[in-house]
Amino acid sequence: MRHHEASAALEDGTIYKSLFASVADNGNYNGFILEEHVCRMTVPTVPTAAADFLRIVVTKNYQHVLALAFAVNEINDNPTLLPNVSLGLHMYDSHLDARMTYQAILKLLSAQHETTPNYCCDGQKLMAVVGGLHSETSIQIATILSTYMIPQLLYGSFAAVSTGKSQAPSYQMVSNEAHQYTGIVQLLLHFRWTWVGVLAVDDDYGETFLQSLLPKFSENGICFAFVERTLKMTFISGVFEFIDQLQKASSVLIQSKSNVMVIYGDIQSTFGIQLMLVENQFSRRTPIDKVWITTAQWDLSSNNFNKIPDIQLFHGAFSFAVHTAEMLDFHKFVRHRNADLLKQDGFIRDFWEQAFGCLLPQSHADERSDEACSGEEKLETLPGLLFEMSMSGHSYSVYNAVYAVVHALHAMGFLRAKGKAAAHEDRMPFKNIQPWQLHYFLKNISFNNTMGDNVFFRNGELQFGFDIINWVTFPNQSFQRVKVGRIDPLASPSKEFTIDEEKITWHNSCHAGFSRTVQKGKPFCCFDCAPCSDGKISGQEDMNDCDKCPEDQHPNQDQTQCIPKSLNFLSYEEPLGTVLVTLGLFFALMTVVVLGIFIMHQETPIVKANNRSLSYTLLISLLLNFLSSLLFIGQSGKVACILRHTAFSLVFSVVLSCVLAKTITVVLAFIATQPGTRIRKWVGKQMANAIVVICSFIQVCICTVWLGTSPPFPHLDFSSVPGEIIIACNEGSILMFYCAMSYTGFLAFVSLAVAFLARKLPGSFNEAKLITFSMLVFCSVWVSFVPTYLSTKGKNMVAVEIFSVITSSGAVLVCFFSPKCYIILVRPDMNNRVSLINKRNNGI
């Protein structure tokens, strides 16, 4: 028995030039023989007769090849559709070039490996052509096919090809584009979006789109903010003109106050605008708050594995898509494609190298380079911008186109076999059949495909309608198409448009770091984006509210996550701490030096003057005061917190008590010199010592009560300084703290007042002037300390306190003791009783 082979050819418009041929052996399908390989979009670089090409693979369209191969594989494995017949296929790429398209069609009409039209070999006969993806290519194909009346099934084009009576009718595997216009209007009205912007490709099809859609807008009360056109990227268009138009169009889209944008165009015409929008959003560093509505020709795509654009901009977009169904068997078929199929699949090399960004060996002898493919690459690991495992709408159209041809052949064969059986003739149903005879059966075909969808044509168009897709994008640049509605031209008018709002993921206008705020009086889908308030974050997109960070954490700069707060305390290692420690130790050393000088010259008149032991007590107290400042530096502990203010209060009280005792001693000494006074008995060391003991004892009592009731303790302050945890000392009882500080201030004020009044008293050893000046500086420091201390936070507050302690104590040391040390060391001739009496007016 002689076996015949019906063959189908697919042209993708952007990616195929390779030849697939099937081998028929006793009616069984044995696989594919793959020859030349191209899977490319080509761009002329030099306008020569034999043009060189810059080849760029549109990797997503490789799925169309696999859909055709999968359909043929299924059909040849099904003995009921075409018994004793194998379906073969040839594939060519038009390169979006008329010359290449015509050459491909002539090859389809010729014997294998030769371009000799009308010559048939081995019973092979071209019965139908599936293609092309683009309207221009489809029309160019029809120019030749119409001569032979060969059926053409358009799997990607919306344009009607048959423009004259001489041309053979074509069959659109997609529904009439007018249903998209209805769907767009219905979608806008459903959500009450009546202020929109429109962007369309600047060609005949874009103009048809605008002329058809804009009147529908006016009829339904929908206003358009702008109508912008963008050049279609072609091989002859000027690059600079194309970029200028892209920039202009994207600028209009971004600056428009309309929040809804309708975009019409295919991958070629909209890919540039996608990149420009993403770039503008990145440079603005603010989200572009738009709802995108696109037509079925549009898609998210990329040509380079290493340069995947940020598609978060299109999160929540709506797209009308060619109807498809999820086919698990196709998913398995695709999953088994790998780089080992180089000899069987001529498309796979260029696809694989472009998609995975690596190089396959030209032969087994080739050495692998650093960029060589590992052979472990899997299609399922590719981002959706490069390749999708689920069957796309165009691939589903290819699949249905193959089945439509087969069911038409099956119906024709059944009818011919029935007639031949009645005439007792040869029962070979496909013997001597012609392609033009297939038209009658294609026009009247009606069958349910493997997914249960009813496939039939009305006026040469498939009646599937369109799916409404909601795009859900993810931070890793992957995405998911969620089917949320349908435009069904066969349904009743009330059910033609359906949408499930619960499945919708809304556009990503609120990025991480922002939260939604509902606009009053508007639908739930209308909201504003407000930055998270201080201390709050939103780690996900489209959060209804921001989350508060734990006490020990704070938001990062973008307010997208909580990060640990840094510890805030004055350490010895940091410059400010080092300076203060050095300053405190320096004055402590100076105090020790002064004390040593006084001890070495303790028998001299200037040291004996006004109570020598009182001077020693004052110097030791100043030394302790300088050293106590070191307690304020470093991370606070229990002991440090207790000693900080209590030790400071006690030591300062002793210092001021000594100063007060010296001042009172001067006053009493002057009064005692007056005739008839009884004060003389109070003048002496006992009086001075009593003043120091009593004044200091009062402060000891205050501190004892303070420590006994509510002592200071370490405290972590989480809120005073943003992003930092202040390690400080809580004073415990605020009342007792202020009592201790107030008492110290009282002693300072009394000492200053008494010394000021006694500064002009006559006397050889009157220290009142020195005391007055030192206490004036002392009080000035602490008066300025109060507002400065209250206006600072954290380590700066501690630094101000330490500086005040050192400065005030240093004022007493320098102003009171430096004149005495000068006389002792530099002018020993003045350190005698006679000189002091003669210099009484100096007040030393």
Descriptive tags:
single chain, 844 residues, alpha/beta, eight-stranded mixed beta sheet, 20 helices, 29 strands, 41% helix
TL;DR?
This protein has 844 residues and is of the alpha/beta class.
Structure description:
The chain is α/β, with parallel strands linked by helices and 844 residues long. Mean pLDDT is 76; it is low at 1-54, 363-368 and 839-844. α12 (575-600) runs antiparallel to α14 (612-628), α16 runs antiparallel to α17 (734-757) and α17 (734-757) runs antiparallel to α18 (768-790). β4 and β5 (52-56) form a beta hairpin. Helix content is 41%, strand content 17%.
Largest sheet: 8 strands, mixed
The helix/strand class is alpha/beta
- Helical segment tally? 20
Low-confidence stretches: 1-54, 363-368, 839-844
Placed side by side, the strands forming the largest sheet appear as: 11-10-12-13-14-18-19-20
| Large-scale geometry | rod-shaped
Total count of strands: 29
Distance between the termini: 140 Å
Using only C-alpha atoms, the radius of gyration works out to 47 Å
Proportion in helices: 40-55%
Tell me the strand percentage band: 15-25%
The quaternary organization reads as: single chain
**Average predicted local confidence, pLDDT:** 76
